[in-house]
Amino acid sequence: MKKPYFKEAIRCISYFLYVVFVGCVIFLGSIIELKFELLTATTGNNTPQFILMLTLPVITGILLAIPGFIAKLKSNGNWKIDWAKLMGIGLPAFYITIYPFLYFVVPRVVGDSMFYSRIMMGGLFINNTLHTIGGLVFGYLILSAIHKENSE
């Protein structure tokens, strides 16, 4: 017969290994980001850096939401999407996440007379911290807005 603390120890070790995995993904992502910054400095092509800057925080947010999503997979019920959560939190987080792309690419295409371009010249959204938090929130929200509802 297994002792009750054995399950908790396995669970603790699993969470620890998961945190190490997420940490490795973040570490490798930062190494790749540095390589892309060097590539941008030498070639002038900032597309790879932008793609990584947009996707790495979102991927990290998704990775952080996986344990809760696995718990939802094990529960009973029908799958539902919390649209209010997705629209109320997800849209602003998505906008903050893609803003660096919008700031640098859209004015080139449409012109520099855009309203948000003038506001953001002050540096409010040209900030890696805000962009990263927006990406983490958006990535986490992608999986956390999906849930199971008991059909009774």
Class based on secondary structure composition and strand pairing:
mainly alpha
The percent range for helix content is over 70%
Number of strands: 2
Which shape, going by the Cα principal axes? flat
Number of helices: 5
What number of structural domains do the residues give? 1
In angstroms, what is the radius of gyration? 20 Å
Major beta sheet summary: 2 strands, antiparallel
Give the overall pLDDT as a whole number: 82
Q: Major sheet: order of its strands?
A: 1-2
Order of helices and strands: HHEHHHE
Low-confidence stretches: none
What is the end-to-end distance?
37 Å
Strand content: 5-15%
Annotate the secondary structure layout.
Layout lengths: L3 H40 L3 H28 L3 E4 L1 H28 L4 H6 L7 H17 L1 E4 L3
Antiparallel strand pairs: 1-2
Helix pairs in contact: 1-2, 2-3, 2-5, 3-5
What does this protein look like?
- The chain is mainly alpha-helical.
- The chain has one domain.
- It is 78% helix and 5% strand.
- The chain is built from five helices and two strands, in the order ααβαααβ.
- The chain has helices spanning 4-43, 47-74, 83-110, 115-120, 128-144; strands at 78-81, 146-149.
- The protein has a two-stranded antiparallel ribbon.
- It is flat.
- The protein starts with a helix and ends with a strand.
